[in-house]
Amino acid sequence: MRRRNIFPDPECAGMMQPYTNDGTRSDFVKNEGMMWMRATTTAVGTKQNYAQYSLTEDRVPVEGTYHVRLLAHAEGGDGMARCYVRQPDSSYLPCCTVNIPDGQTIVVERAIGVPAGCGELIVRICPAAVVGATAMMSRISIEAADTYEIASGGGPSFFTAQTAPY
């Protein structure tokens, strides 16, 4: 089987517009030769601050298991990388939550399930709840789990978060 990244803007080149919530600003920055989508906390409230990419309509993958991989970095406090799917009943199901330690860049790798009739797949980055805190993500990959397993020689036990060698 041929590997294929179904995420349309893996290098965060600005081809997709991220969504943010109140109290969060999003922009694109270049760091160490890579483009990153950065979320910055501008105000702290009762909800988690975030910036996210949303795959909808014809970009939502078909039902199945997928491998999600991305680089994530946090500054000013621990951040979080998360994935959600919108189920057929319009509720959102968190399918991946990984802590990003303050001052570190990590590789996030997880297997996620996409249900039949899924209406949306969200890849989210969350900075700490401190004004000025940032969290960034880049090199986003979403591919069918079976093609990933064949290419990597591994399986779900290899889906972990690890400190990146940066």
Helix vs. strand class: mainly beta
Task: Please tell me what the overall shape is.
Answer: globular
Indicate the proportion of strand residues: over 45%
Q: Measured on Cα atoms, how large is the radius of gyration?
A: 15 Å
Report the count of strand segments.
Answer: 11
Helicity, as a percent range: under 10%
Mean pLDDT: 89
Largest β-sheet summary: 6 strands, antiparallel
Which strand order do you get reading across the main beta sheet? 2-3-10-5-8-11
Helix and strand run: EEEEEEEEEEHE
Can you tell me about this structure?
The longest helix has 8 residues, at 145-152. The chain is built from 1 helix and 11 strands, in the order E-E-E-E-E-E-E-E-E-E-H-E. The protein has one helix at 145-152; strands at 19-20, 24-31, 34-41, 51-56, 64-75, 79-86, 92-100, 105-114, 120-126, 134-144, 161-163. The strands form 2 sheets. Strands 2-3-10-5-8-11 form a 6-stranded antiparallel β-sheet. The protein is mainly beta and 166 residues long. Strand 6 and strand 7 (92-100) form a beta hairpin.
Outline the fold blueprint:
Layout: E1 19-20, E2 24-31, E3 34-41, E4 51-56, E5 64-75, E6 79-86, E7 92-100, E8 105-114, E9 120-126, E10 134-144, H1 145-152, E11 161-163
Antiparallel strand pairs: 1-4, 2-3, 3-10, 4-9, 5-8, 5-10, 6-7, 6-9, 8-11
